[in-house]
Amino acid sequence: MRVIDRPGLADFLRRRRELLRPADVGLPPGVRRRTPGLRRDEVAGLVGMSTDYYARLEQGRGSRPSEQILVAIGRALRCDVDQRDHLFHLCGLTPPPPYTGTAHLRPGLITLAEHLVEVPVCIVSDINEVLWQNSLAATVLGPSPIRPGRDRNFTWRWFTDPSCRERFPREDWDHHSTAYLNHLRSPYASSTANG
Q: Is 147 left (phi over 0), alpha (psi -120 to 50) or beta?
């Protein structure tokens, strides 16, 4: 584990925060804003951390954030993969390995999806892992757990969680089961051809 670059981290966080507008992350614009971009408390809220801790990071005083917090900060600040990796390096940590199913979503895709408020939107990887969903999709399909793992995978949930299937008419179950299995053939064939 390398040493954290506190001044570099503070500068990076501040610059990224100042580039974003509330509308970029689905927040109302508010009436009086003293700073350009998002406020610290808005970023902290998006990340799910205390405003005090986030402020200390931006002031170069905070302790090293965990990997989970760094991933959440990168997502909240709409970092692309290179910026997220830079964030990890500033904290003296090795970035997570790239995900073969493109688990990191481009900020523009999330922004586009957030504007589709009247339809259920669910973005999934090539292996059916839920990467992002809006509230209407959570209502229709069921909420996707925030934590990574099998529970985020539609195919896994379809075959292991009866409540997932109950959201659909029973006469469609065979069709959905076949479709989920057929959908996995392409990534499986690709992975065996490359490895």
A: beta
When mean pLDDT is compared over 20-24, 65-69, 146-150, 152-156, the highest value belongs to 65-69
State the Cα–Cα distance between residues 9 and 15, nearest whole angstrom.
10
3-state helix, strand, coil in the chain (%, to 5): 55, 5, 40
pLDDT digits (tens, 9 = 90+) for 134-157: 888 888 877 776 556 677 788 888
Give the tokens for residue 104. 């990191």
- Among 104, 105, 103, 85, residue whose Cα is nearest residue 95: 85
In sequence order, what are the residues at sequence separation of 6 or more whose Cβ sits closer than 8 angstroms to the Cβ of residue 98? 81, 104
Cβ atoms 73, 98 nearer than 8 A = no
Domain boundary assignment for the chain: 6-90, 107-194
CATH number, span 6-90: 1.10.260.40
pTM: 0.53
